[in-house]
Amino acid sequence: MAHDSYHHGDLRAALVAAGLELIREVGAEGFTLREVARRSNVSHAAPYRHFRDKSELTAAIAEEGFTLLAAEMRRAAKAAGTPRQRLVRAGRAYVHFALRRPEHFKVMFAARLDAERHPAARRAADDAFAGLVSLVVACQEAKQLRDLPRLTVARIAWAQVHGIATLASGGQFQLQTRAAVLAFAEQAMESLIEGLR
């Protein structure tokens, strides 16, 4: 039975987890805060202590997703190697994230992250992109990428890996395994960088 107090730790995190579970089942538009509350075993009013409405919950899911994505890309790029190799590994990590966390990925790019209404989510998204820009700058400084405007190059790289991630998530490539998709992502990033040298 739903109740007003939550005794199992962080209610906000539990609501986000329930939201992700519902997105997996019914899609980003098909769930309600009432159902999130029911799944979290709290009263229907409890979610409103953390989220004014459903858009705030989806923004929190997006924020978590961008934070996790940025961390995974940083981890992938941290290993030894040339700036080019680090950029390729970060691109691979982006695709891998989308395949492992499809609910986060859908919400991250479907939610309208208004800087005034959802500042934390907007910051998380901007931080993730800033990480990509820093990898592009490192490649340019090492003369491994053409000296085009850094934001232009970062957006080109982002468009490439995002397109691969989206198509692969939808099964459009007809590649049989996750490893095959990730190998393709690496080849695509290598080809992109070669074209931008």
What does this protein structure show overall?
This protein has 197 residues and is mostly helical. The chain folds into 2 domains: 39 residues, Arc Repressor Mutant, subunit A, CATH 1.10.10; 142 residues, Tetracycline Repressor, domain 2. 70% of the residues lie in helices and 0% in strands. Helix 7 runs antiparallel to helix 8. The model has no long low-confidence stretch (mean pLDDT 91).
Descriptive key words:
197 residues, mainly alpha, Arc Repressor Mutant, subunit A, Tetracycline Repressor, domain 2, 2 domains, 8 helices, 0% strand
SSE diagram, text form:
Elements lengths: L10 H16 L6 H8 L13 H25 L4 H18 L1 H9 L8 H23 L8 H20 L8 H18 L2
Helix pairs in contact: 1-2, 1-3, 3-4, 3-5, 3-6, 4-5, 4-6, 4-7, 4-8, 6-7, 7-8
What structural category characterises the helix and strand content?
mainly alpha
The CATH topology of the largest domain comes to Tetracycline Repressor, domain 2
Choose one word for the global shape. Answer: elongated
Radius of gyration: 19 Å
